[in-house]
Design goal:
alpha+beta, four-stranded antiparallel sheet, 3 helices, about 35% helix, globular
Length: about 100
């Protein structure tokens, strides 16, 4: 089974409200067995528009990554991510192995 990765690009508009999402989503991800590879560290923009935050999270499979997105545990945090809080792109990419 190939691993899968959430790749998120985020521009934060309201840091206080975004923190509410982080405080719920982070522990929920870890409890689900995901591995947070990058979240909130330094970013060096080489091409295109600058992004505030890049998130990369490893899951056991594409199915696991998608099921977690739709889980009740994740939805508790997701409700804080309105268009007033952040602009976000989130994709699941299948790994090579």
């Amino acid at each position: 089974m190939k691993k899968a990765y959430w790749v998120g690009l985020v521009n934060i508009k309201n840091k206080d409200e975004y923190k509410k999402y982080i405080d719920i989503a982070g522990p929920a991800l870890l409890a689900a067995g995901a591995t947070i590879l990058s979240r909130g560290g330094s970013i060096k923009n080489l091409e295109g528009s600058e992004i505030d935050r890049i998130v990369i999270i490893e899951f056991a499979s594409m199915d696991h990554a998608e099921k977690f997105y739709h889980s009740d545990a994740y939805k508790k945090g997701l409700k804080f991510l309105t268009s007033e809080v952040a602009d976000r792109f989130l994709n699941i990419a299948e790994g090579l192995n």
